Amino acid sequence: MASVTITFSGDGGADDLRAVFAEASGEIAAKLAAKQVENINDRVARREAVSGRTYKASKRVLENKGGSPLTLWDDGDMLKAMKASDFSSDSAKISFGSTREAAKAIFHNNGTRRGLPMRRFFGVGEKDQETLTKQAQKIFKRIMSRRGFGRG
After folding, report:
1. What gap in Å lies between CA 111 and CA 114, rounded to an integer?
2. Residues 45, 37: contact at Cβ < 8 Å?
3. What confidence tens digit (pLDDT) does each residue in 61-118 have?
């Protein structure tokens, strides 16, 4: 396991470090939520579920009745409505801007009895966890550096 030695350059010592953690947690939550929205959109473009598997086609696509083949992108409104919000020190919320788009997302994510197969696109997969962890580390290091903490 890699280790990092933190050197204090401010007069406040532990108080400075607490301030860094307070600043970092909110910024990290906001940026990671935005990154996850990006991850979901990228995954949808690849026709990939949270698990990494490819989506099944809907009856409409199989019967050539229109719609985009397996991308969850018919008019784009559902994915465009996905937003990150409600940031706190330890969480953020990703939701859809309207009830209509949220309902579409639920139908696509869970499937329907009318032939829309389950396509788990909304969530955090293993690849997402790796990407988000790396992003959090970069953000934290940048904040530490900005606040005068160095590695030794």
Report:
1. 8
2. no
3. 666 655 555 456 666 788 888 898 877 777 788 888 889 888 888 888 888 888 778 8
